[in-house]
Amino acid sequence: MEAATDTSASARRELYSSRRVAPSILSADFAALGSQVAEVMDAGARVIHVDVMDGHFVPPITIGPLIAAAIADQVHDAGGVVDVHMMIEQPERQIEEFAKAGADSISFHAEATPHANRTLHAIRELDCLAGLALNPGTPVEAVSELPGYADIFLCMTVNPGWGGQPFIPGSPDKVRRLRELVGEAAIEVDGGIDPGTAPSVAEAGAGLFVAGSAVFGADDPGAAYQAIAAAAGAE
Ligand code: DX5
Ligand code: ZN
Q1: Is 51 annotated as catalytic?
Q2: What does the pLDDT read at residue 41?
Q3: If you compute the radius of gyration of the chain from its CA atoms, what whole number of angstroms results?
């Protein structure tokens, strides 16, 4: 029983090294969250992105471990992963709760703590993949001591806090410079991703493409997901 669980967890982790579009539930209809998740997973999505905001690191307050836990079984049963993106101060205080809620990966912001190395380590100790996120104004050199300590580097392609903002045009160049620093680690891009913007960051070296409003703001989220995946050259 234990071995079977381990195998499926490691199979799920393979998803992070493939090219994938990750629908962000931030833009979903929360009154119908289960069916919204089912819709994109039926269309092929396997990485479900969960945006956690605390009203301090960014102005809005969004969702916490309760919501991650509410979708985790459904996502795992369909062969997917729960990708938690914490936009919060003192992220080290919350990682255990998200791991318990069923997160497969937990990313936090480099700007939110002086203890990125320790926090990445703590996330891995909880058997989750560890991610480090960078705001648009943070230079890629902020990660120069951390390759090898993180599984995912998340490059914000808008300022964090809200869905539906326009993609920052310099982002592909930043992703290209980040790729040179981080070797084989996954690079995730987040914000303003749609069929028009995805190819430029894909070409620059991104592998995970978070899309919120372009998926759940569409009349047909499944079809919208597939259009972004095709543009990104993703599965
Ligand atoms: C923004 C969040 C994003 C958000 C992206 O701070 O981190 O994940 O859902 O939304 P879109 O795709 O609408 O830019
Ligand atoms: Zn996000």
Answers
A1: yes
A2: 98
A3: 16
Q: Which domain CATH number covers 116?
A: 3.20.20.70
Residue 143 lies in a domain: yes
Whether 190 is catalytic: yes
Among 137, 166, 165, 140, CA closest to 153: 140
Determine the length of the chain.
Answer: 235
Give dist(CA 147, CA 81) in Å, integer. 23
**The pair of three-digit structure tokens given for residue 152, joined into one six-digit string:** 């995912």
Total count of domains within the chain? 1
Query: Is residue 214 in contact with ligand 1, taking CB distance under 6 Å?
Result: yes
Question: Which residues are CB-neighbours of 200 under 8 A, at least 6 positions away?
Answer: 171, 172
pLDDT, tens digit, 9 for 90 and up, residues 60-96: 999 999 999 999 999 999 999 999 999 999 999 999 9
The parent domain of residue 93 ranges over 9-232
- Is the CB–ligand 1 distance for residue 163 below 6 Å? yes
How far apart CA 181 and CA 96 sit, in angstroms, is 29
pLDDT band at 10 (very low <50, low <70, confident <90, very high): confident
